[in-house]
Structure formats: C-alpha cells, structure tokens
C-alpha cells in the first residue's frame, strides 16, 4: 500500500516556469492547506537559471517568491501565484489566482484578464511561456501575440511593484506578501 501511495504522489508532479523575466533561485511551493505560507510536507522547489521548477506531490495553488530576475539581474522582492497545476507562474497568473479566490471561475478570470489587457482570446495564461515563444522559431503571428503578452506581463509586474511599494511606504509593518 505504501508503494501505491508513493506512486500516486510521484505522478502528481507540476513542472513549470517562473517569469517576471525568468526568475532564478526563487522558492516555489504548492500551498496544499491554503494558508499562504510553506509548511512541512508541502511540495517545494527552487528555480533553476531559466526559472524552471518541478513540484512532486503538488496540491494547491502555486506560490513563488525571492530569487533574481535574469532580465535585470536584480533581486525579486514580490510574490507570484498561479492556479494549481499551472505550468507558468507570472504576474498575469497572479491576477487569475486572485480573481478565482474572489469567486470567479477560471474561465471567467481568464476571459476578463485577456480582455482587459487587449490580449488574444486564444492565449492560455496558465501555460504560455510568452518569452520563449517571442524569442523562438514559431510563426510571426504567434511571436507577435507572445510579445504582446510579455508586454502586458511587464505592465502588470510594474503595477504590482508600485502598489507594494506604496503600501509598504504607508505602513512599516506591512510585508510584500
């Protein structure tokens, strides 16, 4: 029985990429109990030089923090989240996660974010590595869509950073989370 349980847990692996610019050395975990902090027994990993991670036995939303933005070589001070099972964790998946936590369905959240940012309805924010597509060998149309998504991702990241700085400036006891 223990071997069967171990096999089931081992097959529940979430592999993905963390990007606000690829983030290396970031801590990523699956928040199985929904309390927003890593607890013993929850799947955790550290991103590699290209922002890749793999969480074995992952259950719950994905939360990531820390590390270094490879585009700027500056420390990343924010917190990014994504829905359970997402292969991308970005500022845009953070918006999706927040909307779902506020009562929207995944489909409603995805449609709203894409529409609000003027992105194509065919984009799946939970799986699209916009930077890889924009720099890859795909079609010109796919590259253009990916570049548009990457630009929106950067805009949202800047808004999140400015909002966090404003909140922290107003209260010395407020954390970046």
Give descriptors for this structure.
alpha+beta, 39% helix, three-stranded mixed beta sheet, 5 helices, four-stranded antiparallel beta sheet, 177 residues
Protein model, in words:
39% of the residues lie in helices and 20% in strands. It is built from 5 helices and 10 strands; from the N terminus they run H-E-E-E-E-E-E-E-E-E-E-H-H-H-H. It has helices at 2-11, 91-101, 106-116, 130-135, 140-170; strands spanning 13-18, 23-24, 27-31, 44-46, 52-56, 61-65, 68-69, 74-75, 79-82, 88-89. The protein has a 4-stranded antiparallel sheet. A hairpin with a 4-residue loop joins strand 7 and strand 8 (74-75).
Tell me the layout of helices and strands.
Blueprint: H1 2-11, E1 13-18, E2 23-24, E3 27-31, E4 44-46, E5 52-56, E6 61-65, E7 68-69, E8 74-75, E9 79-82, E10 88-89, H2 91-101, H3 106-116, H4 130-135, H5 140-170
Parallel strand pairs: 1-10
Antiparallel strand pairs: 1-5, 2-7, 3-4, 3-6, 6-9, 7-8
Helix pairs in contact: 2-3
How many β-strands, per DSSP? Answer: 10
Task: Please tell me how large the radius of gyration is.
Answer: 16 Å
Can you list the strand order of the major beta sheet? 4-3-6-9
Element string (H = helix, E = strand): HEEEEEEEEEEHHHH
Q: Roughly what percent helix?
A: 25-40%
Mean pLDDT: 86
Query: How many DSSP helices?
Result: 5
How far apart lie the N and C ends? 40 Å
Q: Name the beta content range.
A: 15-25%
- Cα shape: globular
Derived from helix and strand composition plus strand pairing, the structural class reads: alpha+beta
Task: Point out poorly predicted stretches.
Answer: 1-10
The biggest sheet, with number of strands, parallel, antiparallel or mixed sense and barrel status, is: 4 strands, antiparallel
């Amino acid at each position: 029985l223990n071997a069967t349980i171990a096999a089931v847990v081992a097959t529940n692996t979430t592999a993905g990429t963390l990007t606000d610019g690829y983030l290396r050395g970031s801590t990523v975990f699956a928040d199985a109990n929904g309390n927003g902090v890593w607890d013993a027994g929850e799947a955790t990993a550290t991103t590699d030089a290209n922002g890749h991670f793999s969480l074995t036995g992952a259950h719950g939303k994905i939360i990531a923090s820390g590390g270094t933005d490879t585009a700027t070589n500056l420390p990343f001070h924010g917190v990014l989240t994504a829905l359970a099972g997402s292969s991308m964790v970005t500022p845009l998946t953070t918006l999706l996660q927040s909307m779902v936590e506020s009562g929207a369905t995944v489909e409603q959240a995805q449609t709203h974010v894409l529409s609000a940012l003027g992105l194509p309805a065919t984009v799946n924010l939970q799986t699209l590595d916009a930077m890889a597509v924009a720099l890859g060998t795909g079609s010109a149309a796919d590259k253009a869509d990916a570049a548009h998504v990457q630009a929106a991702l950067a805009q949202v990241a800047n808004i999140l950073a400015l909002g966090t700085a404003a909140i922290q400036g107003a209260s010395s006891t407020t954390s970046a989370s």
